[in-house]
Design brief:
With 381 residues, this protein is α/β, with parallel strands linked by helices. It has helices spanning 6-20, 27-39, 53-63, 79-83, 88-92, 120-132, 160-168, 183-194, 207-217, 226-238, 245-261, 275-278, 283-297, 300-323, 330-351, 355-378, and strands at 43-47, 64-65, 68-72, 109-113, 134-136, 141-143, 148-153, 171-175, 205-206. Among the domains are: 6-66 and 147-220, P-loop containing nucleotide triphosphate hydrolases (Rossmann fold, 3-Layer(aba) Sandwich); 300-378, Up-down Bundle (Methane Monooxygenase Hydroxylase, Chain G, domain 1), CATH 1.20.58. 56% of the residues lie in helices and 9% in strands. It has a five-stranded parallel sheet. A two-stranded parallel ribbon has the order 2-9. A two-stranded antiparallel sheet has the order 5-6. It binds adenosine-5'-triphosphate (ATP) and magnesium ion (MG).
């Protein structure tokens, strides 16, 4: 069964756009959160205090029409605060039951702030909720409607008890403080938030629509990316970055979600960039993995970067030609370099099917024609 993802893709992208709107430099956070929602998986925002993690999660909550549960965990949080208090009347009759109304067991989307504060009583229940969507609490088993959990924390857990929890959070974003060149923007953005400029938001998508988009993603054609994906997993492994089997097994969910976000029913190599949200384990991994992926995937962005460099080189060469005297021996070197660059550009043009890249290739080929003409004239050819 095929489908047309263009309508839903536009809406999902609007969701990303609206989610990041109040903030400076929170594009990845918004993007990954929407991917998580689209794939029905869980996400964690990791970053130092005050980097808008909670604000982003609250913003997403207000943009979605779904049953939400939000809670800030401390080491002293009791299971009843998340899962609901025990029903005393039922207990008198010997029945162990929780009153779950408005608590996590009834939520479709949950936001748990400072999630790694969970103590072991909470942790155990949380693990099965996240994995199986079932609340076990010793006596009863309740199926829960949880679709995605958004978590936040300012650290990565070292405690092995918490590792199982961390492993279940498929998407991970390292939320970096805003860099110096954007401090002015940060001041104005925070000021606008303080003034309440972003409060009146209307939901733009319902959980039902998200689930429909998710179903569409299950039909995305993945044939072209399996081999490159396996290669990349091996490269990551060689670099000491290990994905647990659970996480490996879920990569395709993220890849197909990304294809839908871009309005495609076919996954392409650049969809594998989602691995930058899945593969990192430590803080250092985030940058390292992004570099590896850029290198391996040669995404259009990267190729455009390479082409821009070639174009700059050509313009420098052109200046040298203009300054050179006729029959200057330097011209022969320049001529060789230009021919080399032309070979490179032609090869990119053959191998990359992206309109922006083709545009750039056309521009460069025009420049090459012009400089070749100049150099030939000066060499008297
Ligand atoms: N990148 C940003 N752009 C705009 N405003 C920001 C940004 N970062 C922080 N702020 C401002 O700082 C406030 C505090 O952020 P928030 O409470 O969401 O941080 P946090 O990451 O959850 O911190 P903590 O780890 O302490 O809970 C936000 O509501 C916002 O006003
Ligand atoms: Mg917070």
């Amino acid at each position: 069964m095929q489908g047309d993802p263009s309508g839903v893709s536009a809406k999902l992208r609007l969701l990303v756009e609206e989610a990041r709107k109040p903030f400076v430099g929170r594009d990845d956070e918004a993007y990954a959160t929407v991917l998580a929602l689209l794939s029905g998986e869980h996400l964690i925002l990791i970053g130092e205090p005050g980097t808008a993690k909670s604000a982003m999660a609250r913003r997403i909550a207000s943009l979605l029409d779904a049953r939400f549960f939000k809670y800030l965990l401390t080491r002293f949080t009791e299971p009843s605060e998340l899962f609901g208090p025990l029903d005393i009347n039922a207990l008198r009759e010997g029945v162990y039951r929780r009153i779950t109304s408005r608590k996590l067991p009834e939520a479709e989307i949950a936001f748990l702030d400072e999630i790694f504060n969970a103590n072991s009583a909470i942790l155990n229940s949380l693990l099965t909720i996240l994995q199986e969507r079932i609340l076990y609490d010793g006596y009863s088993e309740i199926e829960v409607p949880l679709w995605s959990l958004i978590a936040a924390s300012n650290r990565i857990p070292e405690d092995p008890e918490l590792e199982a929890l961390y492993d279940r959070l498929l998407y991970r974003v390292y939320v970096k403080p805003v860099p110096e060149d954007n401090w002015e923007k940060l001041l104005w953005a925070s000021w606008a938030i303080e003034r309440g400029e972003h409060v009146a938001v209307k939901p733009i998508m319902s959980l039902k629509e998200l689930k429909e988009a998710h179903r569409l993603s299950l039909n995305v054609d993945l044939t072209d990316i399996i081999k490159p994906l396996i290669r990349i997993i091996s490269i990551l492994e060689e670099q000491g970055i290990h994905l647990t089997d659970r996480r490996k097994g879920k990569i395709l969910k993220a890849v197909s979600a990304n294809a839908i976000l871009y309005g495609r029913m076919k996954a392409v190599k650049s969809d594998l960039m989602v691995l930058r949200f899945i593969a990192p384990q430590t803080i250092e991994d985030f940058d390292k993995i992004e570099m590896i992926l850029y290198e391996e995937l040669r995404t259009p962005e990267r190729i455009i970067g390479d082409l821009t460099e070639i174009m700059d080189n050509l313009l420098v060469l052109e200046e040298r030609i203009d300054r050179a005297k006729s029959y200057d021996p330097e011209l022969i070197d320049i001529y060789r370099t230009i021919k080399e660059l032309r070979r490179k550009v032609a090869s990119i043009s053959r191998n990359v099917d992206d309109p922006r890249v083709q545009d750039m290739v056309d521009k460069i080929m025009d420049i090459i024609e012009r400089v070749v003409e100049k150099v030939s004239t000066k060499m008297g050819m």
